[in-house]
């Protein structure tokens, strides 16, 4: 609970695209699980670990992220000391044309100003509910320079994947990027623990070598020169690497065991509060095995689906295996199966759309059908 | 402190004894309502939506839950630099200390708070009504008519008028007389308990009222008649939207059911007049396979595997497989175990209805908890934090209260716990 650590989250991932779903937003701002954005999980994990200083490294499409985060109050990160810091590219009007290290300059300043011993660095494509107490303890006990969290999901979630091999003491001896035939199922979760001063040193060296981009796995790759220890995470960790992975991860929330792990009582996941009305189920509503958020009006049939806030499902309409984001409206007499509807999508009466569970149909933000 | 035009004061200190066990541990304004809300969310949200940002909440009876709930006012945007929500409990002063003796006395005791802001107008509200109202429109009428006090009124059916405080008015809606619960009403304009006073006028009246040892220190009984006798101009302000008093078990139940039966009347989905509330931080609710949910209102954290029909569920309610919940109001964290069947029940925080229990309006007869004084229309109420024994049978009009002594062979409470 009283960890001497700060947090650094990468808001986007240049290697991951969710197609049309990625157009309006950074990966971390992707809506997930009915009332959350992906970043809510990592932010809550950090806050639940007693971390009070979190930096968010962004480089583009950060409007929707900023709208969501506001002052950080929803995560109790609106603090006088520390709190939530959004780190957009550092643009220096005089030098930006010559020096191309904006992304790292901003991080350096943020890291320098902190007083904590450790930094927890995280990618934006992973959904898990944990505290970092054990991770930090293991990092200290192992005497490592860098610790990386992994689980044994291998390449199950598709690319990008970082497969690591470890020696008998759990130190990383090899790391492979998208290996065609992985020799190990140990897959990095993209979450690191590292001493703050060491991280500053490494970034300074990287900048001196002309590297401009902050890459989590560039640190893991230093296993030849530094001691990089691997820490196994055994809880549920969902990676959002593609539209398909997003769809599968969302559907896995319908399993009691996954929900019990991701929404455990003592470690709440915080998110922006929207003050929607309660959801109303009307006379002919028929809902089963589904996650439903506040503010919805359900007249029709919903099965095996994840429904976000303020969605309307009209009469004689059936949804099966669907993900329907905030404010979407599905009119009467529709039949949707294996469809992802982005925010504000509008489906007119009588539409029939059937995707495949291994290739769901995506309807973009605000689209009308 | 900076000056302000308007300050609102919410009278939230009353016990609400007609709600029985529901207000044993918490003040009435903090009682959950309508799946997502507490009763006080309505006046608080109305204030903010009307542009009133200085709100005093007068608390006295069982203030812990209310004070924690209102907190710094953040959920209602009432955490402002020079404004916001202020909890105002009774306090000790040099030489004396008093509980709030009545509604008027509560304001009298907090005249320093008001004087610091020195507002032109004070809005007095009560914490036990469900309605959406624009106080700024009422204030506009108050100013335009040059009134000293304006009282919001609601036209009630004539036959119900004897239950209310009734205002007799002239044609231009100036008030001639206030009659508390008249046997033969001359008007059907009921006071909604929403007042706007010009502060100078009210201040003087409060001081005069306090000096009268025979006064009940009550707005309706004392202040309003005093102003009328003193020749002040009091106007009625007609309100025609949805307005319900939730002071009794049956009215609390009915008003909850209105959310299902008349959703367009209270219109909680109106984004231009949102009702804000403190969020429980729970995941979206989950409807399991084989569950049946219809005609109901649900919110975050609920997990439903059984049948829920025509019911209002607060956050984190669990209804297990084979359980039947009909016409019920379940407050946060209630668990209805497998095979239990409840109808017309109001179940308070966290109580666990044991397996195969039967309770509510469809169970005939009387039991040790039958309480026809508070419960009517078959409604059953369960106190918070109880584990009801498996297979227990609780007849209509019962109020299950841990403090009622029950012969051992009729005991239905297995244990109690803190929630």
Labels describing this entry:
heterodimer; A: 369 residues; Spore Coat Polysaccharide Biosynthesis Protein SpsA, Chain A; UDP N-Acetylglucosamine Acyltransferase, domain 1; 2 domains; 7-stranded mixed sheet; 8 helices; B: 419 residues; alpha/beta; 6-stranded parallel sheet
Tell me briefly what this model is:
The complex is a heterodimer of chains A (369) and B (419). Chain A has helices at 38-48, 63-69, 102-113, 133-142, 196-208, 216-220, 243-252, 256-262, and strands at residues 5-10, 31-32, 36-37, 53-57, 83-87, 118-122, 126-128, 146-151, 162-166, 172-177, 187-195, 228-232, 237-239, 279-281, 286-288, 290-292, 297-298, 301-303, 306-307, 312-313, 318-320, 323-324, 329-330, 335-337, 339-341, 346-347, 352-354, 361-363. With 369 residues, chain A is α/β, with parallel strands linked by helices.
Tell me how many strands of chain B there are. Answer: 34
DSSP strand count of chain A:
28
The profile of the biggest β sheet of chain A is: 7 strands, mixed
Q: Considering the protein shown, what is the CATH homologous superfamily of the largest domain in chain A?
A: Spore Coat Polysaccharide Biosynthesis Protein SpsA, Chain A
How far is the N terminus from the C terminus of chain B?
39 Å
What Rg of chain B, in angstroms, do the CA atoms define? 22 Å
CATH topology of the largest domain in chain A: Spore Coat Polysaccharide Biosynthesis Protein SpsA, Chain A
Principal-axes geometry of chain B comes out as: globular
Would you identify the regions of chain B where 5 or more consecutive residues have pLDDT less than 50? none
Count of individual helical segments of chain A: 8
Question: Strand count, sense and closure of the main sheet of chain B?
Answer: 7 strands, mixed
* CATH 2nd-level architecture of the largest domain in chain A: Alpha-Beta Complex
Q: Helix/strand-derived class of chain B?
A: alpha/beta
Using only C-alpha atoms, the radius of gyration of chain A works out to: 21 Å
Distance between the termini of chain A: 49 Å
Contiguous runs where pLDDT drops below 50 for at least 5 residues of chain A? 95-99
The order of strands across the largest sheet of chain A is 5-4-1-6-11-8-12
């Amino acid at each position: 609970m009283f960890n001497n650590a700060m947090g650094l989250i990468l808001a986007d991932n240049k290697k991951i695209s969710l197609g049309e779903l990625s157009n309006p937003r950074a990966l971390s701002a992707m809506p997930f699980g009915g009332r959350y954005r992906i970043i809510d999980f990592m932010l809550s994990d950090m806050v639940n670990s007693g971390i009070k200083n979190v930096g968010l490294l962004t480089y583009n499409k950060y409007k929707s992220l900023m709208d969501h985060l506001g002052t950080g109050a929803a995560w109790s990160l609106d603090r006088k000391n520390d709190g939530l810091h959004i780190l957009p590219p550092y643009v220096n009007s005089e030098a930006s044309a010559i020096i191309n290290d904006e992304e790292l300059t901003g991080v350096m300043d943020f890291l320098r100003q902190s007083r904590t011993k450790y930094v927890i660095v995280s990618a934006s494509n992973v959904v898990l509910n944990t505290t970092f107490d054990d991770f930090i303890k293991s990092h200290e006990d192992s005497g490592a320079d860098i610790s990386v969290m992994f689980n044994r999901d291998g390449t199950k979630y598709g690319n990008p994947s970082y497969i690591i091999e470890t020696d008998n003491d759990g130190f990383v001896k090899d790391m492979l990027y998208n290996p065609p035939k992985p020799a190990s199922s140990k897959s990095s979760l993209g979450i690191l623990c590292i001493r703050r001063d060491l991280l500053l040193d490494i970034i300074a060296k990287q900048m001196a070598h002309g590297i401009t981009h902050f890459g989590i796995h560039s640190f893991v790759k230093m296993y030849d020169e530094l001691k990089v220890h691997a820490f196994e995470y055994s809880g549920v960790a969902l990676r959002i690497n593609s539209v398909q992975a997003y769809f599968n991860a969302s559907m896995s929330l319908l399993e009691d065991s996954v929900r019990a792990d991701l929404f455990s009582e003592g470690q709440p996941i915080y998110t922006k509060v929207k003050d929607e009305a309660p959801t109303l189920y009307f006379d002919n509503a028929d809902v089963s095995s589904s996650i439903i958020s506040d503010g919805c009006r359900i007249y029709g049939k919903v099965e095996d689906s994840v429904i976000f806030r303020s969605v309307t499902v009209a009469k004689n309409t059936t949804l099966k295996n669907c993900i329907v984001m905030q404010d979407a409206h599905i009119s009467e007499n529709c039949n949707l199966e294996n469809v992802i509807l982005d925010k504000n999508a509008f489906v007119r009466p009588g539409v029939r759309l059937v995707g495949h569970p291994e290739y769901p149909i995506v309807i973009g933000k605000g689209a009308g059908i | 402190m900076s000056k302000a035009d308007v300050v609102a004061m919410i009278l939230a200190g009353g016990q609400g004894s007609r709600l029985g066990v529901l207000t044993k541990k918490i003040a009435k304004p903090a009682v959950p309502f309508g799946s997502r809300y507490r009763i006080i969310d309505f006046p608080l949200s109305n204030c903010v939506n009307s542009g009133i940002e200085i709100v005093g909440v007068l608390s006295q009876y069982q203030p812990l839950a209310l004070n924690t709930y209102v907190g710094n006012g953040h959920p209602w945007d009432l955490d402002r630099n020079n404004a916001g929500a202020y909890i105002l409990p009774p306090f000790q002063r040099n030489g004396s200390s008093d509980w709030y003796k009545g509604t008027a006395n509560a304001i009298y005791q907090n005249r320093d708070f008001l004087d610091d802001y020195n507002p032109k107008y004070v809005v007095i509200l009560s914490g036990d009504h469900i309605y959406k109202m624009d106080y700024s429109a009422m204030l506009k009428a108050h100013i335009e008519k040059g009134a000293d006090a304006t009282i919001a009124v609601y036209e009630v059916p004539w036959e119900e008028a004897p239950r209310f405080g009734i205002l007799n008015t002239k044609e231009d809606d100036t008030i001639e007389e206030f009659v508390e619960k008249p046997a033969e009403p001359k008007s059907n304009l009921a006071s909604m308990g929403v007042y706007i006073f010009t502060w100078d006028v009210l201040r003087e009246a409060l001081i005069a009222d306090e000096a009268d040892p025979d006064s009940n220190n009550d707005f309706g009984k004392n202040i309003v008649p005093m102003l009328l006798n003193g020749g002040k101009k009091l106007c009625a302000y007609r309100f025609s939207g949805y307005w319900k008093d939730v002071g009794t078990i049956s009215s609390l139940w009915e008003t909850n059911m209105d959310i299902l039966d008349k959703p367009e009347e209270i219109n909680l989905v109106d984004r231009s007049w949102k009702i804000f509330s403190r969020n429980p931080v729970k995941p979206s609710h989950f409807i399991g396979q084989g569950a049946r949910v219809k005609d109901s209102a649900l919110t975050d954290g609920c997990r439903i595997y059984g049948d829920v029909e025509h019911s209002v569920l607060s956050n984190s309610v669990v209804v297990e497989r084979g359980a039947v919940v009909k016409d019920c109001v379940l407050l946060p964290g209630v668990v209805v175990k497998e095979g239990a069947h409840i109808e017309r029940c109001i179940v308070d925080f966290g109580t666990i209805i044991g397996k195969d229990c039967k309770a509510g309006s469809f169970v005939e007869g009387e039991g040790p908890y039958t309480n026809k004084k508070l419960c009517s229309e078959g409604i059953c109420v369960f106190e918070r934090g109880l584990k009801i024994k498996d297979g227990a049978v609780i007849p209509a009009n019962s109020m299950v209260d841990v403090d009622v002594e029950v012969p051992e062979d009729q005991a239905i409470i297995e244990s109690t716990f803190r929630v």
